[in-house]
Amino acid sequence: MQQNNNHRDSFVKAVTELGLQNGAFFDxxxxxxxxxxREIPPDFNPLKYFKFEPIYNFEVGxxxxxxxxxxxxxxxLFANNGFMLDFTETKMTSTISCVSEGYELWLLDNLxxxxxxxxxxxxxxxxxxxxATYRHRxxxxxxQFRLNFDPEYFAExxxxxxxxxxxxxxxxxxxxxxxxxxxxxxxx
Length: 188
Known about the structure:
Blueprint lengths: L1 H20 L4 H14 L6 H4 L6 E7 L9 E5 L5 E13 L2 E12 L4 E13 L2 E10 L13 H36 L2
Antiparallel strand pairs: 1-2, 1-6, 3-4, 4-5, 5-6
């Protein structure tokens, strides 16, 4: 159990340091850290609950995912696998294809955070979706991840990811039931 707490504490620390590296005010970061410490369950272990996967320099896939027979990967960016915590889209264009670029924030399985630049092209034709993604590591640090980094928003995002990972379908069903009840009450 102590090992789980060490992993949890390392995770909370890494996420909190992200706020400080992004130039957020210390008070905001302190509040976010307290919220994370309070709302992430003590038995949470990111290595157990998050689905870590290789982060590739180049990936091609079909039908909207990379787990198909038409899957190609090239050059893992890191020796460690990662779990994507967030994606910030910086630009998007669309004609026949949709091209987007942005930054991905990954938690590596050594509990370090890294930022990766990502450019993705999506082509849809006749119900078939083909994806090609190119990534490279941002070496000058995490500060480039968000221009207007909000530690409170980020803490909420991380808490949602943790609860989704731990509770999965149970949490989704609870939310759907609550939404349905609220809808019924609001339409009366």
